[in-house]
Amino acid sequence: MEVYLSINDWVENLASRGRHSFSLNEVRNAFADDTEAAIKLKLTRLVRKKKIISIHKGYYLIITPQYASRGILPPSLFIDGLMKFLERPYYVGLLNAAAFNGAAHQQPQEYFVFTNFPVLRPTNKKGVKINYISKRDIPELYLEKRKTETGFLSISNPALTAIDLVQFDKRVGGLNRAATVLNELAETIKPEQITECFLREVPVAAIQRLGFLLEVILKKDIGKHLYKVSQKSGFDFFRIPLKTSAVKKGYPSDEKWKVIVNTEIEIDE
Question: What is the DSSP letter of 216?
Fold first, then answer.
């Protein structure tokens, strides 16, 4: 077991080995002879020197020279480690997953991370905001692993990203923004991603809205495939509004998808 003269040396050694984070428990184990008060004081000094930052209670990021001016690491470098520390299943979704999956010009200002319950409070540090969206189940089967400098990141595959964009459209700025992203994302959704098993994991209303947007508004062939699989799965479509928060009466509805067209969709090219 290596012996370090100071916590600063220990942190620098971690960084030299490619580590970008550590937990308070790791420090306690490495400096078992130090009191809790002494450890916390030394960590506070490193925070003041901007060598580390506390991103969550008991979890610190190491600020390497290339990120010193920002004072924080990009979320893609620490989300996986943070969620492992919290012992939470997760995936990066919505606009962030869309950017990974081909909607390249969608560069969100916030990170959206899906995880299970109980609800996690947002992380907001040094201009980096991470919003956590809670789901009862995290569908591991429909996630993809993407390589990062520090390891891997779990993201939703294009089909799950598309469903989430419609189901949580308010989180991304509304249906127009969701449809704009879908316009690009649709090209990366493969028919084999939309299966009967997949559709049973998601709300029927989200399937209807997504299908209407893909087939009727965006004229994408994948919308026809979505309809075919949803019919094969035996789903009953009931009339639902395209925009959930708008008035339903007095608007026409699409007969195929049973969507009441109570808002006009405008795509940003």
Answer: I
